[in-house]
Structure formats: C-alpha cells, structure tokens
Write a structure and sequence with these properties.
Blueprint: E1 2-4, E2 7-9, E3 17-28, E4 35-46
Antiparallel strand pairs: 1-2, 3-4
Amino acid sequence: MTATGQHLRTAPAAGPAAVRVVDAVKVYGRGDTEVRALDGVSVDFSVGRFTAVMGPSGSGKSTL
C-alpha cells in the first residue's frame, strides 16, 4: 500500500477477488457540514485472506 497525499493505493490482489469495490463514494451532509467518508475508493479483497478495515469513526468502514 502506498500513500499519495490523502489517498492510499493498494497493490492488485495476488489471486481472484472475493469482493471488489470500484470508485465508491459516500457523502454525509451538505454545504458546510459535508463529509466525504469515501471518495473514489477502489479495493479488492482476495479469496482466502483476512482483511481488517481500520479508521476513525465516520471514515466509511461500515459503508465500505
């Protein structure tokens, strides 16, 4: 995984993906209260691998 500014990028999955998310976006609120929990997130979760999704409250873990 590499960090580019505020964005994290993961390497392609080694095997077939059990789950694939492409360009997911989730926005809460509007105007001055708008929060982008997910902003163009793409990730593969590989078959046979355990994956932990970690982050602060409101960061989009459950939505993902």
